[in-house]
Amino acid sequence: MESLVPENLTASFPWLTALVVVAALGAVALWCLPRGARGRVREIALGVSLVNVGLLVGAFTQFDTSKAGVHQLYEQYAWIPQIGTSYAVGVDGLGLALVALGVGLVPIVILAAWREQGDDVERLRHYLALVLLTAAFMTLIFAARDVFLFYVVFEAMLIPIYFMIGAFGGPQRRGAAVKFLLFSLAGGLVMLVAVIALFLQGPGGAEGFLTANLTGLALTTNVERLLFVGFFLAFAIKAPMFPVHTWLPDAAQQAPAGTSTLLVGVLDKVGTFGMLTLCIPLFPSASAWAAPTIVVLAVVSVIYGALLALGQKDLMRLIAYTSVSHFGVMILGIFAFSQTSIAGASFYMLGHGLATGLLFLTAGMVIARHPQRSQRIADFGGLQRTTPIIAGIFLLGGLATLSLPGLAPFVGEIMVLIGAFGAYPAAVIVSAVVVVLAALYILLTYQRMFTGPEQEHLTGLPDMVGREKWVVAPLVAALLVLGFYPRPALDLVEAPADVTVSTIALEGSAS
Amino acid sequence: MTPLIAAAPQFVQPEIWWTWLAPYLLVLGAAVVGVLVEAFVAPRARRSTQLTLALVALLGAAGWNVWLWVDQFAPTEFKAIALVNGSLMVSYFTLALQTVILVVAALALLVVADRSRGADDFAPTAAAIPGSDYEELARTKGLQQTEIYPLFLFAVGGMMLFPAAGNLLTMFIALEILSLPLYVMSGMARHRRLLSQEASLKYFLLGAFSSAFFLMGMALVYGYAGTINLWAITNGHALQVPEALVGGRPLLVMGVVMLLVGVLFKVGAVPFHQWTPDVYQGAPTSITGFMAACTKAAAFGAVIRIVVWFAPFIGLDLHEEIQVTIVIVAIASMLLGSVLGVVQHDVKRLLAYSSIAHAGFVLVAVAGVLPYDGQTFVFPMNSAVIFYLLAYGLATVGAFAVVRLVRESQGRGADAVTLGEATHLSQWAGLGRRSPFLAVAFSVFLLSFAGIPLTAGFIGKFTAFKVAVDGGLWWLAVLAVLCSAIAVFFYVRIIVLMFFVDPAADDTEPEPAREVVAVGALGATSDAPVGTPLAGEPEAGVGLRLSDELRRTSGGVTVLKGSVGSRVAIAVAMVGTLLLGVLPGPVLDLLEKTVNFLP
C-alpha cells in the first residue's frame, strides 16, 4: 500500500499558501479600503489577481512535471491537533491544473465585471472582494491534503458564492441563492458525518485527518460503502449530476455572468475533483461497487441535460443545462476507471472550464447590450450584422462546449469516450450520439440570436470594446492552444490518473 | 480556623478552604454589597458604582478560577476536590465551566448596563403599574432600577454553584439562587411591560413546578440511598449494594429521572421548553441574552453532573435508563427547535427556538456518555460540552445585544422617539445597508448558530457530534446533522433579509402604528397576543412576504448606536466566535484536561 502513497515533495517556498493569502488579503483590503481610494477598486482587484497569476507561474517553475502523480509544493502545519486536523496543502498535476484554471479565470472575471454595476462603485467593491475571497478558497480546496481542511473550505466557500448570487444577480436571485445554499449544505452536512466517521476508522491522533493517513484503511464492506455514499452525495450535488442538479440552472440564470463562470467553470469541478481525489482513493472497492450505478446516472445526466438545454428559452439556463450534460461525460470518464478515460475526464474539466467560461462571459456581453437586459433567446435576432465579433466569439465558445475538434474540450471528450468504451460500450455509444446531437442546441441558439432579420430595438448596438476583447482573448487562446497541443496539460493529468487506476486495480486484485 | 467537617476519607482535604470558596464568596459578597449600595450611595453614583462592583467581582472570580486551575488544582485519585464535607466538589470541569459562565456573564453585563439614549432596557420602576401616572412620573424623572446589578450577581452566583454542587441539596439551592433573580429580572422590561410581566409570571410558575420535580426526585433518591451526597450514593454502591435496596431500584430510577426533569427545564429542552419562547420574547432583551447563554451553561453543568455521577457507575447500573432518557429528550429538542424555528416571524422567538435546538445538540454529546469500565475515567463529553456552551454563549450574548439595538421609532428628526425592539423579521430588511457593522456581526453569530465552518459553532458541533459517534450513537449524530440542516434555513433567511431585501423606503411617513398607547408605558407596536402569527406568508425560497401593512410599520425602524460597553461586547463576541472557529486549538487543549476527570 505504501507505494501508492508516495512521499510528498515539500515546497521550498509556500507558493500555494501565498496564492491563498494574497487573494484573501486582497478581499480584506477591498472591504477596508478608505473612502478616498474607492474609485480604484477595479484596478486594485485586478492587480491582486494578476499578482496571483505571477505566483502561479512561480509555482509552475517549482513543479516537477515528470513526477506529476506525486503531491508537490507540499506544506504541513498543525492546525487543531486536538481534533486531528492539519493545515496540509499540496498539489499533484490535476490539482495544479485546476488551481491554474481558477487563478487564471479570476482576472478575466474581474475584467468582465468592470462595468457590470454601472457607476455604483460601492456595490462593485463588495462584488470584487467576494470574487477574491472565492479565489482564495478555490486555490485552497484544490490543494487541501487534509480531509477536514477540505471539508471546511468546501462549506466556507458557499458563503461568498451565496452572496455573489443573492446580492448581485437577477430578479429571482434570492430564491436561487437560497436553493443553492440549501442543496450544497445538505450535501456538505452528510459529508460531515462521513468525515467524522472516516476519522474514527483511521489511525487518529494529531494528524489523523491527513488524506495520506486515511488512504488504504482496512474498512469493512458496509462501512466503506456508507462512507463512500456520504462523500459522493456531496460531490454529486456539487458537480452537479442528475438528479441533484436542479439548483444549477436557477443559480446560473440569476447570477451575473462572472459568477456563473466561476461557479460552473471552476467550483463545480470541486465535485468531480473530489470524486477523483477523495472518493476513489479512500474507498476504492466501494467505488468499484458503485461504478455501474453511477455510470447509468452519468449517462442519464448526459441525455437529460442535453434534452433540457434544447427546450430552454433562457440563455443562461441553456448554458447551465449543457454543463449538466458535460459533467455527465466527466463522471462517466472517472468511473470507467481506465487510465485514458480518467486522464480524459481530468483534461475535460479544464477544457470545459475554459469553454463554459467563454460562453457565459460572451452571453453576458450580449445580454448587457439588450436594452432591458433580457436573457430570453427570443428577444434577440440578427446580431451577426451589428456585433460580428461577439457573434463569432459566441459561436466559437458554443462549438468549444460541444467539442469541436481543434478546441480543448474535444481532446478530453474523445479520450473519455475511447477510454470508457472497453468497460461500458453502451454508455459510450449513447453519450456519443447525444453529444453529437447536442450540436443542435448551440447551433439553433446561434441561429435564433445572431442570424436572420435584425430586431428593431437591437439596431446600432456597439460591438466588442477593447476591454471585452481582453476578456475573451486569453480564453480563446487557451482553447486553441490546448486543442492543438494538449501535451503539456496531459502530462499534468496523466500521472495522477495512473495513480488512481492503480489504486482501483490493487483493490481489485486484493479482493 | 478549625477545618469545617472532615471530608470523607476518599477525598484529600485541601489545606485552605477559603481559597477554594473565594470565587463564590466574591460574587455573592459583591451582590450583598450591591444591595447595600442601593441603600447608602447617592442615586447619581449608584449605577457606576454597581457596574464597577459587578464587573470587578465577575472578572475577579474568573481570574481567581484561572489561578486555581493553573496553580492550585492537585488531582487526587477521585479527581475532584471536596469542600465543606462534599457539599461542593470542584474539578477541572467545574472550574472551566464556571470561568465560561463568568466571562460570558461579564459580556452580558456590559450589554445590560447599556443606558445610552433610547437603549435602556429596564423599566424606571418595575413596581409601577403599566400605564399609570406613577410610571409616567418615574419616567420623566429619569429613575433607574439599579437593583438589577445585585440581582444579576446573585444569579451568577447560583450559576457558579450549579456545576460545583456535591450533593443534591446544594444543587437545589443553586437552582433557586439562580432562578429567583431571573424571574424578577424577566419582568422588568421598559417596553411592552405587560408582555414582560406575563413572561415573568410564566417563568416563575413553571420554574416552581420544575423545582418541585427536582425536590421530589431528591426525596426518592434519598429514600433509596439514605443520603443525598453524590459521592456517598455512587461510591457506597461501587463497594456494595445492600441487599435491602435491591428491590428499591425503581425508586432510584424515578428519582434520577425527576432530577433530570428539574435541570432540563432550566436547559430548555423538550418537553420542558414551553416557557422558553414566551420568556425569551417578554424579558428585557439584554436579560434574555444573559439568561440564554449563562443559565444554559450552568444547567448543563448540573445535567452532566447528574448523568455522570449516576450513569456510569457499576453499582448503580443506570447507564441504559439515563442514556435512553437523554437520547429521547435530545431528539425531541432538536426536531422541535429546528422545525418550529422555521415558522417564526419574531427574532426573539426565533432565537428561543434556536436555543431549544441547541439544547438538543448539546444533549447529543451528553448522550455519548460511556459506561464506566471499572478502571479509567474518560469523559470526552466534558470538553465538547464546555466548548459548545462557550461558542453558543458568545454568539447568544452578541446576537441579543444586536437585537436590542434595532428599535421601532415614531416621529422624525429631533422629535423621534425610540420605542421597543423591532423584533418582527420584516423590520430587519435592509439592516445590512443601514448598519453594516451590526448586520455583519449578527450574520457571524447566525452562521455560528448554524454551524458553518470557520465559526466557533462549527467546532462546537463537530466535537459534540464526535462524542456521540464515539459513544456508538452514530445515528443520533446523523439526525443531529439533519436538524442542523433544517435550522440553517431560518438563520440564512435572516441574513437574506438583512442583506438582500431592500428596506422599506425611509422617506415614507411611518404611520403611527395602531397599538401605540403611551410611549414608555405599554410600549410600541406588535403587542399582539403571544403566539398569534403576524401576517407574512412563506414565499418560496426566502420565506417572508412583506405585506404592505408590514412595510408600513418597518418604515419606523431605527438602529441605535448603543453604549461603548455594548458595542465592545458585540465586537468581543464576534471576534471570539471567529477566533474559536479558526484557531480553537489552545482552548481545546485546555479543555482536554477536563476529559479525564469527573465533572
UniProtKB/TrEMBL annotation, chain A:
Residues spanning the membrane: 12-32, 44-63, 94-114, 126-143, 149-168, 180-200, 226-248, 260-283, 289-311, 318-337, 349-368, 389-408, 414-444
GO molecular function: oxidoreductase activity
Primary location group: membrane
Boundaries of every NADH:quinone oxidoreductase/Mrp antiporter transmembrane domain copy: 144-434
Entry EC number(s): 1.6.5.11
UniProt membrane topology term: Multi-pass membrane protein
Top-level enzyme category: oxidoreductase
UniProt subcellular location: Endomembrane system; Membrane
Keywords of this entry: Membrane, Oxidoreductase, Transmembrane, Transmembrane helix
Keyword Lipoprotein among UniProt keywords: no
PANTHER family attached to this UniProt entry: NADH-UBIQUINONE OXIDOREDUCTASE CHAIN 4
Family to which the UniProt record says this protein belongs: Belongs to the complex I subunit 4 family.
The name this protein goes by in its record: NADH-quinone oxidoreductase subunit M
Lineage of source species: Bacteria, Bacillati, Actinomycetota, Actinomycetes, Micrococcales
From TrEMBL, chain B:
Protein family membership: Belongs to the complex I subunit 2 family.
Organism, scientific name: Flavimobilis rhizosphaerae
Gene name as annotated: nuoN
Key word Cell membrane present: yes
Record's keyword terms, sorted: Cell membrane, Membrane, NAD, Oxidoreductase, Quinone, Translocase, Transmembrane, Transmembrane helix, Transport
Gene Ontology molecular function terms on file: oxidoreductase activity
Reactions accelerated catalytically: a quinone + NADH + 5 H(+)(in) = a quinol + NAD(+) + 4 H(+)(out)
Membrane topology listed for this record: Multi-pass membrane protein
Segments traversing the membrane: 20-41, 53-70, 90-112, 148-165, 171-189, 201-225, 245-265, 297-316, 322-343, 350-372, 384-403, 437-460, 472-492, 568-588
Subunit relationships: NDH-1 is composed of 14 different subunits. Subunits NuoA, H, J, K, L, M, N constitute the membrane sector of the complex.
Annotated NADH:quinone oxidoreductase/Mrp antiporter transmembrane domain residues: 165-486
Protein name as it appears in the record: NADH-quinone oxidoreductase subunit N
One Pfam family matching this protein: Proton_antipo_M
Subcellular location: Cell membrane; Endomembrane system; Membrane
NCBIfam families cross-referenced by the UniProt entry: NDH_I_N, PRK05777.1-4
E.C. number(s) listed in UniProt: 7.1.1.-
Alphabetized InterPro entries for the sequence: NADH-Q_OxRdtase_suN/2, ND/Mrp_TM
Main enzyme class: translocase
